[in-house]
C-alpha cells in the first residue's frame, strides 16, 4: 500500500511540475497592424482583430504548451508609424508573426522590418503586387488579393463586354498606382484603350474635380484605383453628378461587401467587382460569417475572412513543425494545401503568393436582394492560376527561372 501511495504521489508531483512548466512558458504572440480608425477600418480594423481571435479560440487557445495572445495596433495609414509598430512588436514585445497590415504603403514598410528580422508576415488587407514582386521575402505571404488579380478579373470581364475605353481615378500611393498600372495592362492587352488618369490624395472627401475630368474624357469606364472610403465617396459623388445616368460606367477595381453596404444597392447596382470571398457562397462561408456577425454585427470582408484562414494555417504549421522558428514554420506552410471556407486547395508559392480562386460578382438591384448584405450575384469563378500573376512573370528575387 505504501508503495502504491508513493507512486500516486510521485505521479501527482510530475503532473503539477508539468503544468507549472507549461505556465512558465511565454505566450506565443501574433500582432496585427491595422487601420482601426480611418478609411480602411471597415475592411480590416477591429474586424480583423476579431477574426484573428476567433481563429485562436477555434484552434484551442494554445500551441506547443504556450498560450496564444493576439495583439493589435493602429497604424493610422502612416508608413513610418507602421514600420515603428512592426519594429516594437518584433524587438520588444516578443511577437512571432504579424498579420494583415492593411494598406499597401504601410505593408511595404512593415514588410521590410519583418524581412530584416526573419519573421513571418502575412498580408490580408493590402493589395500592391510589389509585395510578391520586388518586395517579396522568404517569410512574406500575400494571402487574399493583389492588384494583378483584381485587374485581371474585373478589367478583363469589362473589356470583353464592350467596355473598352477607360479613364482612371487613382489613389496617389503604392496600391493605387499599381492597380492603375495592372488594369491598364489588361485593358490594352485585351484590345481596349486608356484615355487618361488623374491621381487624388488618400482619404479625400471631394471628388468633384477628378470626376469632371473623367466625365470629360468620354471614356466608357471610370476605373476607381482606390479602396475603402475613397471608393465609397467616388461612387456616391459620381451618382450625384449624374455621371452614371449619362452612360459612363464606374468600375471599382477593389471593393468589399462593407463598401457596397455603405453605398446602398440603389446606387451600387450593376457594378462589376472581383472578390476573394463572399459570405453567401456556400454552407461553409455562411457558417463562418454567421459566427462573425454575431460578434461584430456585420458580415466579414474578404480581408477579415483571410485573417481567420491565414492565422489558422500559421498555427497548424507551428504545431506540425514543433517550433515557432520562422524557417521551419514557413516550410510547412508552403508544403501544406489550404482547405477551409476561404480557399479550396490553396497553395503558398515560393514568391509568397497564396493561390486560390477569385470571383467575379455583379451587384444586385434592390429588387433582387432579400435583405441587408444580400448584395452580390456570382458571374464567374476564376481559378487562381488564371487570376494571379504567373511565376514566369514574377519579379521576386526568390523565384528560380
UniProtKB/TrEMBL annotation:
Residues 27-364 form the Leucine-binding protein domain. SUPFAM superfamilies: Periplasmic binding protein-like I. Residues 1-22 form the signal peptide. GO terms for biological process: amino acid transport. The keyword Metal-binding does not apply. InterPro entries: BCAA_transport, Leu-bd, Peripla_BP_I. Keywords: Amino-acid transport, Signal, Transport. It holds the Pfam family Peripla_BP_6. It comes from the Bacteria. Belongs to the leucine-binding protein family. This is Substrate-binding protein. It comes from Bradyrhizobium vignae. The lineage of its organism: Bacteria, Pseudomonadati, Pseudomonadota, Alphaproteobacteria, Hyphomicrobiales.
